[in-house]
Design a protein that fits this description.
- Residues 84-98 have a biased composition (Basic residues).
- GO terms for molecular function: DNA binding.
- One of its GO terms (biological process) is regulation of transcription by RNA polymerase II.
- The structure is a single chain.
- The protein is an all-alpha fold.
- The protein has a domain at 11-73: DNA Binding (I), subunit A, CATH 1.10.30.
- Helix content is 59%, strand content 0%.
- α1 (11-26) packs across α2 and α1 crosses α3 (50-72).
- The longest helix is centred in the middle third of the chain and has 23 residues, at 50-72.
- The protein is flat.
- The N and C termini lie far apart (68 Å).
Length: 112
């Protein structure tokens, strides 16, 4: 069985993937974290993001279509709401008494 389609990239991530090499060229020896930081600065300063937003919208449409096909062909792992990978939360353990509470309980027993 095929894996569920991966979520589409955002407009920013699509842009960053195309701009990454240029950022590295302009700043030789830059760290990966600094590339992302510089990319964020450039993205925020960008006036016209419509090209990238359109590409992201198309990617989302393609993704939605792929998910529908996937689910129509028996994908989804049997969970009716599509959350097959979510695990049940473990049962909560009873709260431990603090040392102070224990000593107060001991005092109560002695006074009876």
């Amino acid at each position: 069985m095929a894996d569920k389609p991966k979520r589409p990239l955002s407009a920013y991530m699509l842009w960053l993937n195309s701009a990454r090499e240029g950022i590295k060229r302009e700043n030789p020896g830059i760290k990966v974290t600094e590339v992302a930081k510089r990319g964020g600065e450039l993205w925020r300063a960008m006036k016209d993001k419509s090209e990238w937003e359109a590409k992201a919208a198309k990617a989302k449409d393609d993704y939605d279509r792929a998910v529908k096909d996937f689910e129509a062909n028996g994908g989804g792992g049997g969970a009716p709401n599509g959350n097959a990978k979510k695990r049940a939360k473990p049962a909560k353990k009873p709260a431990k008494k603090s040392k102070k509470e224990e000593s107060e309980d001991d005092d109560d027993e002695e006074s009876e």
